[in-house]
Amino acid sequence: MPTVAPLDLEGHVVGVAFLKDIPFFAGAAGTIHRLDQGHKTTELHDGLLSLAYDEATDTLLTGGEDGKVMRVSADGTASLVAETPRKWISKVAAGPQRAVAFAYGKTSYVRLADGTTKEFPEERTVEGIAFAPKGLRIAVARYNGVSLHWVGMAGQPVDLEWKGAHTDVSFSPDGRFVVTTMQENALHGWKLDAKPGAEARHMRMTGYPAKVKSLSWSAKGKWLASSGAPAAIVWPFQGKDGPMGKAPLELGTRGNTMVTTVACHPAEDIVAIGYEDGMIIAARFADSKEVLLRRPGKGAITAMAWNRSGRQLAFGSAAGDCGVVDLAG
User: Fold this and answer.
1) CATH at 169
2) Of 166, 185, 207, which residue is a domain's last?
3) pLDDT tens for residues 159-172?
4) How does pLDDT run across 3-52, given as a tens digit for each residue?
5) Residues 98 and 197 grouped into a single domain
6) Residue 1's pLDDT is what?
7) Of the candidates 160, 189, 207, which is a domain's last residue?
8) Same domain for 94 and 201?
9) Higher per-residue confidence, 196 vs 221
């Protein structure tokens, strides 16, 4: 069995990431912890709400209840990206060319590398933001759908409408699909047609017994793994129409124990699956083979991240029991 290096923290862990192969753990109270030749901390926010990994710069972006957006480097140093006093920064996202998106209330903001900030108002509260994989374009999740904005161009957004509360949003790695999690127990997707004027096609992904709070695309974007069931529900996106008319894989089924977090491997068609009792397994898409990575712990798994080589997996829980799984043993 793989070895686990444990780290016990106080309180809920919002997110985890590797920066230069150093594992980072972000606590809801606002402290960032890292395991770098010992346990080290950076006091960052008065309450941390959101976290995103910036692959282009190998840094972390965070948003807090103190109205600050911060960037954290691998050595733990933090710099201020933006500040909006008395506003809670509920969402942050990292984009190309060092662009940073963040949101509070009914407005999304994109701060460019030169310091220019663009505003994108919505009629309803912003629930999620994601950058397209190519080009400076953002998707904003809101009530009744998603707004697509080109950051460098003024004009009307493209509205992807679907009734209901959309709580987060994600682009497929090839940029052909947009998928949202919903307040109801479902995902909703749109196929973005490249032809001018053509309407986006809808995809409904339903049947979950609980809300979906975690999504992860496979390395080549052919699969989308999700939580919200007693198994990881993995939808096929290989075909031109994505999962329409196709059944998902169900990996790591464990009775009535719910999956709370999923994290696809950076190179292989494998997904790490975290459960409400703290257990973690890895499952392979091709044959559903499972490997136990961690036995049950104190709290539900709330965050997981692989390092770049895919040999280590960092995890955090609602109870603060964290750690790093080393697959090399």
Assistant:
1) 2.130.10.10
2) 207
3) 999 999 999 999 99
4) 888 899 999 999 999 999 999 999 999 999 999 999 999 999 999 999 99
5) yes
6) 65
7) 207
8) yes
9) 221
> CA torsion angle for 188, 156, 62, 21 (degrees, to 10)?
70
Domain containing 300 equals: 1-41+209-329
What are the distances in angstroms from CA 71 to CA 75, 216, 228, 305? 12, 23, 31, 18
Least confident stretch, 49-53, 129-133, 243-247, 305-309: 243-247
232-236 β-sheet, strand order: 215-217, 223-226, 232-236, 249-251
Which amino acid does the sequence have at 41? T
Alpha-carbon distances of 220 from 58, 266, 312, rounded to whole Å: 20, 9, 20
- What gap in Å lies between CA 45 and CA 225, rounded to an integer? 31
Structural domain total, the chain: 2
Residues 324 and 242 in one domain: yes
List of long-range contacts for 173-177, beta carbons under 8 Å, 24+ apart = 173/133, 173/217, 173/220, 173/221, 174/133, 174/221, 175/132, 175/133, 175/134, 176/242, 177/203, 177/237, 177/242
Instruction: Characterize 168-194 residue by residue with b for buried, 16 or more Cβ atoms within 10 angstroms of its Cβ, and e for exposed.
Output: bbbbbbeebbbbbbbeeebbbbbbbee
